[in-house]
Each structure stands twice: as structure tokens, then as C-alpha cells.
Design brief:
Layout (H helix, E strand, L loop, with lengths): L4 E5 L19 H10 L3 E8 L2 E10 L3 E9 L8 H11 L8 E6 L4 H7 L2 E10 L13 E3 L5 H12 L4 H7 L4 E5 L2 E7 L6 E4 L2 H12 L4 E5 L3 H9 L3 E12 L9 E3 L7
Length: about 270
């Protein structure tokens, strides 16, 4: 069995086999892994046993940190250690001198696996949703579309809050961003095209105004449990928390500002 175990890059020809891997509520994995294949800062990997794909996962690289994402074991192959094996392989593929922190977002199923490998719990993400349209939010009139003069300020705001250099990812999604600007300063940014719709802010007023803007077209929100004021606002607006996931890390602990994240990117990028 060990001799027939292979770790290889996921190819386009593998995409049709990913449907069976999809956990409930994850959605279609094919566009996600097609993006990983196409991206020059992602490394999607499959673990095969005797030619059968039994586990998949991806490393996503920023400038000095990395995220493990979409780690999934085939439903028929669970409880055989394959989750541990592919996670360990992904960790070992990362240059720890360059990428000093490795993150992931753990589901209930993955949490004990990652703990055994050595990941530490950093915080929880609260997942909230509503079935009804939210009305009467009184949107701010000073939310504006992206302007290039704010580019460096937006990138710096993300660095200050995330304590990661995510410039490549931010730049890919910056043109569609919405800004909350006061006295010529960017106080908050919403990235509609970035994962679940990242919202970062310097203060609660600016952040919650963009949360309200986002809720016009989204019936869910995911954010760190540390952002108590926004979670309270969402619950008062009719959203209900239905689960948590766990942000975990290996390596350097960074002083990121969890309470300044008003909606996360995704389980793949924080």
C-alpha cells in the first residue's frame, strides 16, 4: 500500500473526479480547483493510492505566509489516516524560512486531525445566515466605488489588519471594491469578488456600514467571533448563527486584528 502512495499536482483531467469529494454546503469544487491550477501562487495536490485519488488539498501562498485549503478525504476512504498524510505533505512542501506562518480553517471533522499534527487554535469564525430578505438597513451615502488614488492605502490597511502580505490577492480583486471614506481617508473596504466578500475596517461604524451594504445581496455572514459588536448587529438584523469553524496556525503567531474583520475572505484565505 505504501509503495503505491503518490502525491502529485492536480491536473485539469482530475477535475471531473472531484464531485464525489464535495462536503455538504461547500458547493462545487471544480471552479475552486480550476482557479488553484491556474494561479501562480497556489499548489493543488492529490494523494492517490493504487491510482485512485483518496485525498486532495491546496497550499495558497502569500508573500510571507501560507494557507492550507480544501483538504478533503474521499468519503469511502476516511479514518485511514489520509487526512493526516496529505496535510503533513502540504506542510512539508512549504519553505518555513520564507513562509513563517501556515494557517487553515478547520471544520469539526478536520479539527482533531490538525490538532494532532501540531496546529494551534487561534480563534473561531461565527457562521450566520437568514432565509429572509433584510430591509430597512439605511445604507450610507458615502460608500464609493474604488478609485486608484486609494490603492496603496487599501493594501496597507489589509496588511495592518491581517498581518499578512496579501497584495497579490487584494490586487486581483481591488477594482470592484467599495470604500468607506471619511475626511479623505479609507476607513473600510469591501471586496465583493474576494471569496465570501472580505470586509476590513478601522472602526465599527465604517465596518458595519459596509456590512449593511453587503447584506443587500447576501443572506449570510462569516467573521471572527472576536468581532462581538458586528455579530450582535447581524443577530439583531435577523441572522442566526448556525455553526463555527476554527482558525488554526503553525509557526509564527502574528498580532492580527480579528475584531477589525467584518466578513472574512473564505476558509481558504482567512
Amino acid at each position: 500500500m505504501i509503495e503505491s502512495m503518490q502525491f502529485e499536482s492536480i491536473q485539469y483531467t482530475d477535475l471531473d473526479q472531484l464531485k464525489v469529494f464535495e462536503p455538504p454546503n461547500w458547493g462545487d469544487l471544480v471552479p475552486r480547483f480550476r482557479y488553484h491550477i491556474d494561479s501562480n501562487f497556489c499548489d493543488p495536490v492529490k494523494l492517490s493510492i493504487a491510482g485512485k485519488i483518496v485525498a486532495i488539498g491546496t497550499v495558497i501562498f502569500h508573500k510571507d505566509s501560507a494557507w492550507l485549503a480544501s483538504i478533503i478525504v474521499h468519503p469511502d476512504e476516511r479514518n485511514q489516516g489520509y487526512g493526516n498524510k496529505i496535510t503533513t505533505h502540504l506542510i512539508n512542501s512549504v519553505d518555513k524560512k520564507k513562509y513563517t506562518t501556515i494557517y487553515l480553517d478547520a471544520t469539526d471533522l478536520g479539527f482533531p486531525v490538525y490538532q494532532k499534527i501540531g496546529f494551534e487554535l487561534e480563534t473561531n469564525y461565527a457562521h450566520l445566515r437568514t432565509e429572509a430578505n433584510i430591509s430597512g438597513l439605511n445604507l450610507s451615502e458615502i460608500i464609493i466605488p474604488y478609485e486608484d488614488k486609494y490603492r496603496s492605502e487599501i493594501i496597507q490597511l489589509d496588511k495592518d489588519i491581517s498581518c499578512e502580505n496579501r497584495e497579490d490577492t487584494i490586487t486581483e480583486n481591488i477594482l470592484t471594491s467599495k470604500l468607506f471614506v471619511q475626511a479623505g481617508k479609507v476607513e473600510a473596504v469591501f471586496f465583493p469578488s474576494l471569496g465570501n466578500g472580505l470586509i476590513i475596517a478601522n472602526n465599527d461604524h465604517a465596518g458595519i456600514e459596509l456590512v449593511k451594504y453587503r447584506l443587500e445581496n447576501n443572506y449570510y455572514a462569516i467573521l471572527p467571533s472576536d468581532n462581538v459588536s458586528t455579530i450582535d448587529f447581524l443577530k439583531q438584523s435577523g441572522l442566526v448563527q448556525f455553526r463555527i469553524s476554527r482558525r488554526m496556525f503553525i509557526g509564527k503567531k502574528r498580532p492580527w486584528k480579528a475584531a477589525s474583520i467584518y466578513n472574512r475572505i473564505s476558509g481558504q484565505l482567512g
